UniProtKB/TrEMBL annotation:
This is BTB domain-containing protein. Pfam families: BTB. InterPro entries: BTB/POZ_dom (IPR000210), SKP1/BTB/POZ_sf (IPR011333). Residues 31-128 form the BTB domain. It comes from Phlebiopsis gigantea (strain 11061_1 CR5-6) (White-rot fungus). The lineage of its organism: Eukaryota, Fungi, Dikarya, Basidiomycota, Agaricomycotina.
Length: 341
């Protein structure tokens, strides 16, 4: 097939000693990358082996005095790979960027193909650092993105990236985000409605397959029950506000017992009135978020009129509850992964 070759506008160096030609596009146009053998060989065992073949230059056609390697990869894929090799800071340094899994997908594809382990590790790290593996990491990241909601990582792209390239560690957090995302808010509509919707989590739902939807629906069903448990536990629906050791103040001053009991009841009532919109949380479109709900209570409990001991125990109780919920999310996700493998 006849095709034309155009030098890449950035990655075509005069000092390059090898030319990589992309596969031609639908219009018969290919892109040439004149780069350095040393850079390719340092990062890729495939290219390193290729360049050490006897008379390797004689195996390829020549272009302006340098050997040409014609590959089957697209211009988009090769440009992303060259950017990873020559300008890695532009690809791997952004936090909370919803485009990160999309941008790094062609990099991962070629890093796997050409055995570029370091590039692959950096791409995996760039995606994984936005998706926590433990509750403690979730709590830290959730606090960071609370003020950066416009830069919230996009969960569907992360799921697709993780499943396509076998990176299961980020799936629990990504699936959890999908389980409490509104299915009516599609990624392409994120700029349509104006600033009043800026706190909505937009999602690329079309990237999910049947297995992903099954995980999301099952996880959502479980979280609905957990949300009801959270509400019952902390608002007196089970006639204990709340249950367990929190009902007894540890203070040696008897007058503080009544104060702490009143303070606890008041903070829980305020939490229920201000933060608990069960009609919205349990609506069909928007999924439950018990971790986030508990996080709101954790933020509020420090303002309660209680002694230091009661505040500390309430904070610990909330955190332990969150950790237990997180572990159940991880377990359910891992169970589904085992079933599809």
């Amino acid at each position: 097939m006849e095709y034309t070759v155009t030098p890449h506008h950035k990655f075509h160096f005069n000092h390059g000693d090898v030319a990589i030609h992309s596969a031609p596009d639908s219009e018969g146009k290919a892109t040439a990358y004149r780069v350095n053998k040393a850079v390719l060989a340092l990062n890729s065992t495939v290219f390193a082996d290729m360049f050490t073949l006897p008379d390797a230059d004689g195996l390829h056609e020549m272009d302006d005095g340098v050997p040409v390697v014609v590959v089957t990869d697209s211009e988009e894929e090769l440009s992303a790979l060259m950017q990873a090799l020559y300008e890695p800071h532009t690809l791997f340094s952004c936090r909370f960027d919803p485009e990160t899994p999309i941008r790094l997908t062609p990099v991962m594809k070629l890093a796997n193909k050409y055995e570029m382990d370091t590039i692959r590790e950096r791409a995996v790290e760039a995606v994984c650092r936005d998706w926590p593996e433990t509750f403690e990491q979730w709590a830290r990241i959730n606090a960071e993105i609370h003020s950066l909601i416009d830069r919230t990582p996009e969960a569907a792209a992360a799921v697709r990236f993780a499943r396509d390239f076998n990176i299961p560690s980020i799936l629990p957090a990504a699936y959890y985000a999908l389980a409490h995302s509104d299915r009516n808010w599609h990624w392409d509509s994120r700029n349509v409605f104006g600033n009043q919707w800026r706190y909505v989590r937009y999602t690329r739902w079309e990237l999910l397959d049947a297995i992903d939807y099954k995980v999301v629906l099952c996880l959502r069903s479980m979280l609905v029950g957990k949300l009801s448990n959270v509400v019952s536990q902390y608002t007196g629906e089970t006639n204990s506000i709340p249950v367990g050791p929190l009902t007894v103040c540890p203070s040696t001053h008897s007058e503080s017992h009544a104060t702490c009991a009143t303070g606890l009841a008041e903070i829980l009532q305020r939490w229920k009135e201000n933060e608990l919109d069960l009609g919205s949380m349990l609506a069909e479109a928007e999924g439950p978020n018990p971790l986030g709900l508990l996080d709101q209570l954790h933020r509020m409990h420090t303002t309660a009129e209680m002694c230091g001991g009661c505040k500390t125990r309430l904070g610990r109780h909330i955190t332990m509850y969150q950790i237990a919920l997180w572990e159940q999310v991880v377990l359910m996700t891992e169970t589904f992964q085992e079933e599809v493998q």
